[in-house]
Write a structure and sequence with these properties.
With 412 residues, this protein is an alpha+beta fold. It has 15 helices and 13 strands. It has two domains: 190 residues, no CATH class; 138 residues, no CATH class.
């Protein structure tokens, strides 16, 4: 151990109680910083997985047509397209051809054709408005978590029953229907009877309250639609590439392509704001601890002027004196960060085991946390900035002390 570190430890023990309070604040600040980031990031990640497992990474829908304008030149008329002003034609006219084209893009792992329309559902106790989603089951399982979202009944019953349907849990509760019971759907001026094969729950209240899944051919017959589709739902290997891939597809396929980041922009901004807000709030603990440490180090400088003068007389340079006080900050920082990491990991693990029922934008029965090394890195960096700034001014002041000034009593 170097003499500078040994002296720094000796000075620290002179203000043991004050330094212990500063150390405690850093431990709690680092720990709660890690916990809040793990919690907000965990819920955000769970929300993203829910959305990707329900609506897919990309949605390809309306075809794009350039608008044409006419101009005259030398007595002749000619038309040109406005790229900034386009016309959207609702739906997909040739979904099979579009599927084949989408499959040529790298990173695509699944494509599902979906036909949707509004229906009136009549249950045993009431009627309610809903939307029917016509799907091909195997394709839908490749682009969603539908198989894992079944909470009552069995997906196989739906696969083998052409007149079966899957109904959201909230909608089933509102209608008072259970698995195996009949319900009636009214659309396009006709009413047909079906049987509930299974009940699913995504956790997204709007989806569970109004969505029904039916076989594609039966949906075409109910809605009296031809061979077209409402949209294609696409799954990709790297979800972060969704915006770039969507832009490429839209230019190539001349269809509107929406990435999940754009669809869920509002909620993603909410989670981002919560993450930043929690980081700033918890960082105040570290800042307050840093202020306490600054005050303690300043008092040490005032109380140890004679010792500093002796050290200077023995040959210690200004740089050595500054290093002694900076080492005090480094020691407190290292101990505080390590203990804070352990404390943060402990409370994060403990809270992840607490029961918490949430239904709304996702479905969970416990706290959701995300384990990331970056939470620990950012917590340590925040503490390092505060502690070193708190140590720098007292260290510079101590380094400016001259032995002669101390003897004459004129040191500042």
């Amino acid at each position: 151990m170097s003499p500078n570190i040994r002296i720094a430890l000796r000075f620290l023990t002179a203000k043991r109680r004050s330094m212990l309070m500063s150390l405690t604040g850093i431990v709690f600040g680092v720990g709660f910083f890690i916990f809040t980031q793990a919690q907000t990031s965990g819920f955000e990640e769970f929300f993203i997985k829910t959305i990707l497992g329900t609506n897919g990474a990309l949605r390809i829908e309306d075809s794009i047509q350039d608008t044409l304008s006419t101009m005259s030149s030398d007595g002749s008329d000619f038309a040109f397209a406005h790229r900034d002003s386009v016309k959207y034609v609702e739906g997909i006219a040739e979904p099979e051809k579009l599927r084949q084209a989408v499959g040529q893009f790298g990173g695509v792992t699944g494509i599902a054709e979906v036909l949707t329309g509004a229906v009136l559902v009549r249950g045993s106790i009431r009627s309610d408005a809903a939307r029917v989603f016509g799907i091909n089951v195997e394709d839908q399982l490749r682009v969603s978590d539908l198989g894992r979202q079944i909470v009552f009944g069995h997906l196989n019953d739906f696969k083998v029953n052409p007149s079966g349907l899957l109904i959201g849990r909230v909608l089933a509760s509102r209608l008072g229907v259970n698995v195996g019971e009949p319900i009636a759907l009214e659309a396009a001026g006709q009413m047909r009877h079906y049987r509930v094969s299974a009940i699913f729950e995504t956790g997204v209240s709007d989806i569970d309250r109004q969505r029904l899944y039916m076989h594609m051919q039966e949906t075409r017959s109910l809605l009296q639609q031809g061979d077209g589709a409402s949209f294609l739902q696409v799954a990709i290997a790297d979800r972060n590439r969704a915006p770039a891939l969507a832009a490429h597809m839209q230019r190539t396929l001349q269809h509107a392509v929406t990435p999940w980041q754009e669809r869920e922009k509002t909620w993603l901004e909410v989670f981002r704001a919560l993450r930043i807000s929690s980081a700033l709030t918890v960082s105040t603990l570290i800042i307050i601890s840093g202020l306490g440490m600054f005050n303690t180090l300043a008092m040490i400088v005032m109380e140890k002027t004679k010792e500093i003068a002796i050290l200077r007389s023995m040959g210690y340079t200004r740089q050595d004196i500054a290093h002694i006080f900076l080492w005090q900050g480094v020691i407190v920082l290292l101990v505080g960060v390590i203990l804070g990491w352990l404390f943060g990991a402990g409370i994060t693990f403990s809270v992840s085991r607490l029961p918490l029922r949430i239904r709304g934008i996702f479905s969970t029965d416990s706290f959701v946390v995300a384990w990331s090394i970056w939470h620990y890195v950012f917590a340590a960096l925040t503490a390092a900035v505060v502690v070193m700034m708190a140590s720098l001014i007292p260290a510079r002041r101590a380094a400016r002390l001259e032995p002669g000034d101390v003897i004459r009593g004129t040191s500042q």
